[in-house]
Design goal:
By secondary structure, the protein is mainly alpha-helical. It has one domain: NCX, central ion-binding region (A middle domain of Talin 1, Up-down Bundle). The protein has twelve helices and four strands.
Length: 322
């Protein structure tokens, strides 16, 4: 058990560090390849923070632990909204100025409902996975088109500004890209091994471990990115990171895991975990969209989101103890 805990902690630490280096290397390499800074900021960096979820879930599926993969994806979405946005809003209320972000909120809501519809029969087949991945590429294409069309948008400007600190040479960028990817895979392998072994040792389901410990660990890059963004006053980027991550998790992370191995799900995934994820997404949509006025997530909203996260986590822990 000690080795499993050590592997879990080492995997989490290495995962966060390697994900950061992977994103830096990927962003710089894309820049040298001639990719416009706006697209790098919105696509490579925005979706790149979800690389830990993708690799962890893929490895979990390959190892025959699909419940861990689903728990990781949905747990990360819950963590992103309730914990990360809640914490960020408590520190500094989030003003939503970007039209790109406002347009992505209803898309995230629609995709969350689509995911719930797929879960209704308790199965995620390879055809379901294909549907998720097709929608994912459609959303990526739409995001690119919107970003280029609204080149003066606040979110677009903030995404480009984030790249100014990256001064890697092409050789350094490629090296960090490769090292980051290799270490990301190693870290994910350690994390999955530790999480599964601990779950089996204390009689907890892979799903609960994925929803809690693994989900928090793989969401740390989003937390770091959002806190840095809010410190710089880049409110739209802080919210955009979470929206992009949740889109990626719901579509690509779950889609890749189900494509590797079709997943049979307990009814509780729909009635408990997806339901909370959908409710939080709806709350984020209502707060961020604003309806004829500027959207804002204030400190009261932040407190309510944090209380929702504490209540949900407490409930999961109580079911384990009982």
């Amino acid at each position: 058990m000690f080795l499993a805990i050590l592997a879990l902690l080492a995997g989490l630490a290495l995962l966060v560090w390697s994900a950061d280096k992977f994103v830096d290397g990927a962003a710089a390499t894309a820049g040298y390849a001639g990719m416009p800074p706006l697209l790098i900021g919105m696509v490579v960096v925005g979706f790149g923070t979800s690389a830990p979820e993708m690799v962890v879930s893929a490895i979990a599926a390959l190892d025959g632990n699909p419940a861990l993969a689903i728990g990781n994806a949905y747990g990360s979405n819950i963590t992103n909204i309730a914990l990360i946005i809640g914490l960020v809003a408590l520190i500094s209320p989030i003003a939503v100025n970007s039209q790109v972000v406002r347009k992505e909120l209803p898309i995230l809501m629609a995709i969350t409902l689509f995911a719930g519809w797929q879960l209704y029969d308790g199965q995620l087949s390879r055809s379901d996975a294909l549907g998720l991945l097709v929608v994912f590429f459609m959303v990526v294409g739409w995001s690119i088109w919107q970003g280029m069309r609204n080149s003066k948008d606040d979110y677009s400007d903030q995404a480009v500004a984030e790249l100014s600190d990256n001064n890697l040479t092409l050789k350094q960028a490629i090296i960090w890209l490769i090292i980051g990817l290799v270490l990301l895979i190693i870290a994910s392998r350690l994390l999955v091994f530790g999480a599964v072994y601990i779950a089996q040792g204390i009689g907890v389901s892979d799903l609960v471990i994925g929803l809690t410990v693994v989900a928090i660990g793989t969401s740390l890059p989003e937390l770091a990115a959002s806190l840095i963004a809010i410190k710089k006053g880049e409110h739209d980027l802080a919210l955009g990171n979470v929206i992009g991550s949740n889109l990626f998790n719901t579509l690509a992370v779950v889609g890749i895991a189900a494509a590797i191995k079709p997943i049979s799900l307990d009814a509780v995934v729909l009635t408990r975990d997806w339901t909370l994820m959908a409710a939080l997404t709806a709350a984020l949509f209502i707060m961020g969209y604003g309806y004829k006025k500027q959207g804002q997530i204030n400190r009261l909203h932040g407190v309510l989101l944090l209380l929702a996260y504490i209540g949900y986590s407490g409930y999961l822990v109580s079911t384990v103890i009982i």
